[in-house]
TrEMBL record:
Keywords: Membrane, Transmembrane, Transmembrane helix. It comes from the Bacteria. This is VanZ family protein. It comes from Paenibacillus alginolyticus. The chain crosses the membrane at residues 9-28, 57-77.
Amino acid sequence: MIKNSMKLLFWWSVLSVFLGAIFIFTALQTFTGENTKVQIQQITGMNEHNAYVTNAIIRKSAHVLMFGLLSIIIYVAIRRQSIWLAWICTTLMAGVDEWHQSYIPGRSALVEDVLLDSLAALIFLRIIVYIRRR
């Protein structure tokens, strides 16, 4: 009983830290699309177009990874009760994240990012269920 409580506390703590990290990174102007594109250009010497494409790939990959992992953390934190509840919670957090970004200078809120995050969460959760059932 105590062991299960400790596991639950651990995963809720991980979830809290992860959500805090997303909130902080979203709030930092260092991670705006324009800033990261300029950093890519400076580091690699790429022209504007190639840096833009590379930046987009990196940023969208980060969305997929972060919200895919978030969905798994939520799934474990709710004791693997429902992938659908984990997916809904992740999608809501993606919406809150984009809403938060709309208040940060140099950032923008995109419905497309919420959809990408939601799809990533669903794919990650389906993979976890598939692996667990094997």
